[in-house]
């Protein structure tokens, strides 16, 4: 390893393998280490590239001699190997931080507790439709690092989680978007909301007056965070509560997006024309629309794209209508706030499928919506005690189930023609499923077998 920088990549999923391939291309000596088994697809990529790796163990001598370490966002700071790296002052980076060194593309970075996948996909859709040479990455799609290694894009739209932000230092977003800050993953932030909010605000670090910050001014946590910080970038707020002179706002049934940029005409559009319906999606559409206006895309192009977008899988995805009952897959709702948004966009008479690994959830914010819209709750998880305690006075029936097919069968029998069965679990999926995609796919399969 004489003369070569030695980099260790912890975690061999999409982001880790992408980082390893980019590091190799940039002339690093690379070693990949994963405490779990490495999926066949990723193992093959590493083998074909001739990158040395290990699985189901961490060889400390190899890891602790690294010049720097690229860490998977899923590995917590409290993991023993991370503590040892920190003690030795070995720099620990996210894939985004590492890959950002090797591209001059414009970075559009989107974060928030909820809606970031939808907003990232919608923004990418608008830019791609307008003919821009754009890549999609971060917490979604293909590894950003791998794209930097092998593809040449002028723009990247990146979904950025708080875990990624925690290990980003010199990276800068040209356009940053902060959608909302609501309690999520507090177990990773010492159960302190302020720590989690600080993490989200790292999306604006290193921005200058030449950069843009787009944010929801209706969100109390964001507003409070802005008041505490000096923000250098050009700001564009969005709101559904008041009329602004600049940014995006809702007036009646009409959204206006105005950046006052180079004599551009504002974009004015009825919310009925938006492909994404529901209050939360007005926010998501506004954020994406401001990005498009900042990039000087034509109003006609933005309007067409915002009207033609298909939402992502597992996010309020309509599965089927059976015996007059609508089945909706919102498996991506892994926190209470996501479930609140889902319920808020539903008509009354919902059979709600809830449960999984509870991340310290406060179900209180759901109580009013559950009382007004939910006729029964089907629990899908190993430990449903807290759901029973939260809602036993609000609904007539709460039933425990331990598989997607059992949950769907029971929900189907509880529902009547005109009702909606909504899978929106408010919890992580790891007690009964591999991940939220597996949970959503098993739900869809069970629905189609009714």
Automatic annotation (TrEMBL):
Residues 110-291 form the Mur ligase central domain. The keyword Cell division applies. Residues 314-427 form the Mur ligase C-terminal domain. One of its GO terms (molecular function) is UDP-N-acetylmuramoylalanine-D-glutamate ligase activity. ATP binds at residues 112-118. It is found in: Cytoplasm. InterPro entries: Mur-like_cat_sf (IPR036565), Mur_ligase_C (IPR004101), Mur_ligase_C_dom_sf (IPR036615), Mur_ligase_cen (IPR013221), MurD (IPR005762). One of its GO terms (biological process) is cell wall organization. Keywords: ATP-binding, Cell cycle, Cell division, Cell shape, Cell wall biogenesis/degradation, Cytoplasm, Ligase, Nucleotide-binding, Peptidoglycan synthesis. Pfam families: Mur_ligase_C, Mur_ligase_M, MurD-like_N. Its EC number is 6.3.2.9. It catalyses: UDP-N-acetyl-alpha-D-muramoyl-L-alanine + D-glutamate + ATP = UDP-N-acetyl-alpha-D-muramoyl-L-alanyl-D-glutamate + ADP + phosphate + H(+). One of its GO terms (cellular component) is cytoplasm. Pathway: Cell wall biogenesis; peptidoglycan biosynthesis. The keyword RNA-binding does not apply. Belongs to the MurCDEF family. Cell wall formation. Catalyzes the addition of glutamate to the nucleotide precursor UDP-N-acetylmuramoyl-L-alanine (UMA). This is UDP-N-acetylmuramoylalanine--D-glutamate ligase. It comes from Daejeonella lutea. The lineage of its organism: Bacteria, Pseudomonadati, Bacteroidota, Sphingobacteriia, Sphingobacteriales. The gene is murD.
